[in-house]
Amino acid sequence: MTRIFAGPWAAQILADFGAEVVKVEHPRGGDDVRRMGFPQMDAEGRQTGDTSSFLAMNRGKRSVALDIATPDGQQALRALIGKADVLIENFKAGSLERYGLDYAALSTLNPRLVYCSITGFGQDGPYAALPGYDPIFQAMSGLLSVTGNAEGTAGAGPALVGYSVSDINAGFYATIAILAALHHRDTVSGHGQHIDLALLDAQVAAQSHIAMNYLVSGRMPVRAGTASQINTPWQSFQTADRPLMVAVGNDRQFAQFCEVLGLPDLPADPRFTTNRQRMAHKLELLPLLQQALMARGADQWMTMLNEAGISSGPLNDFAAALHDPQLRHRGMWGEMPHPRAGTMPFVANPVQFSGTPVTYGRVPPQLGEHTEEVLAEWLGTGADKAS
């Protein structure tokens, strides 16, 4: 019973891992994300009715259309939940109680149910009733205080992370929590439990290594563009033809990096001997490195740095990432038959299981496509229960 990104993302991960997932939507309109993103086209250039955002979050599921404001819809939903292992919902805190669909009511119906509530601010606290979307959580969590160009540079100021990072992080935490609760139910207690997950909490937790910089030192992290808050050199540099990302992880690697750049004496400079010293003297160090890197193009530097054990890589856009040989070898770009578009490209699940490989059996469903099928299969009833 989820919409937009966080809940559907968690449910899609579970579907990829083999769960039977039923997406319960309102009969009129369904998930709002059905209308977000770019329209999918068929081979003749006609819109199929699906959008890129919906396709990204909803493979592997069946869609059931139920109106929980009606007695029949509530009855059908309760009957489905009575047979389920997990319920994921992202309604506003407390709003399902009026329908008898809160955890207290449903845990009596199904004591083994793992009930995962995903909201913006959680089930309690002064913000619990407030609405919220990803950019609000990026702002309130502190993320925008460390994302963007550094003060005093061109374009200085906050920059929104280019995808709905708060939703995706919450989806990951939800998946982990659901699996932990199922394991506890099946090995310890015999009972399910309620998971209360807030997007704001999840985003704060996901950036804990940056927050800890402040908690430990009292020094406020800053915006640094492509650079690291704790290591240097660890950022994008311009080369003779295009930018190159470089990440030097320790003092030994810094010496190797300087050797490749033709600056063998640099590591002996007392300003640059250790990472702490390099961080303290970044303004002196970085121009020296930048000048050396302008001598060759990015591909040549990558070859030389890789041979020396120094991590580097291009600043790809998605077209370049699509053709990256490593990502293609790993199967990160997939394609599956689609009944309206012919074929559907997708981004694969990154987990490589040795014994139970991820399979992709269902394209994202049309609204209510499986209502009759699921109600008959689970409950032995027909589509009349959906109204």
UniProtKB/TrEMBL annotation:
<dbReference type="InterPro" id="IPR050483">
    <property type="entry name" value="CoA-transferase_III_domain"/>
</dbReference>
<dbReference type="InterPro" id="IPR023606">
    <property type="entry name" value="CoA-Trfase_III_dom_1_sf"/>
</dbReference>
<dbReference type="GO" id="GO:0016740">
    <property type="term" value="F:transferase activity"/>
</dbReference>
<dbReference type="InterPro" id="IPR044855">
    <property type="entry name" value="CoA-Trfase_III_dom3_sf"/>
</dbReference>
<protein>
    <submittedName>
        <fullName>CoA transferase</fullName>
    </submittedName>
</protein>
<dbReference type="InterPro" id="IPR003673">
    <property type="entry name" value="CoA-Trfase_fam_III"/>
</dbReference>
<dbReference type="Pfam" id="PF02515">
    <property type="entry name" value="CoA_transf_3"/>
</dbReference>
<keyword id="KW-0808">Transferase</keyword>
